[in-house]
Amino acid sequence: MKKTDLEKNKALKIMGKLNASLPPGRFAGAAAAPDRREQRRLDQAAGLVSFPVKLQQPIITALNAKAQADGVTVNDLINSLLADALKA
User: Which structural domain, as residue segments, surrounds residue 40?
Assistant: First the structure.
């Protein structure tokens, strides 16, 4: 066997061990986020409906900053801002 073949086999062995190892705790277990189907079911139960819109980048940046400053999610912030704007 050539030296390159030996090195290639060693690399394949290492990659096999890496792929077979368990994922870190943040990617598996009970702390994992629900899958899309489960998240959709939870959203429907809460009365939420997906409504995609396209906004300019400065507006998105301002919304993210305000949401972080207020300590709420962007969805909650936009929901309250739109509700207030429609009341006026």
Answer: 3-87
Contact of 78 with 66, CB cutoff 8 Å:
no
- Provide the terminal-to-terminal Cα distance of the chain, rounded to the nearest Å: 79
In 3D space, the residue among 66, 87, 88 whose CA is nearest the CA of residue 77 turns out to be 66
Q: Number of folded domains in the chain?
A: 1
**Cβ neighbour number for residue 43 with a 10 Å cutoff:** 13
- Per DSSP, which regions of the chain are E strands? none
Of all helices (H) and strands (E), which one includes residue 69? helix 57-70
Query: Could you read off the pLDDT of 19-74 as tens digits, one per residue?
Result: 777 666 655 555 566 788 888 898 899 888 888 889 999 999 999 999 999 999 99
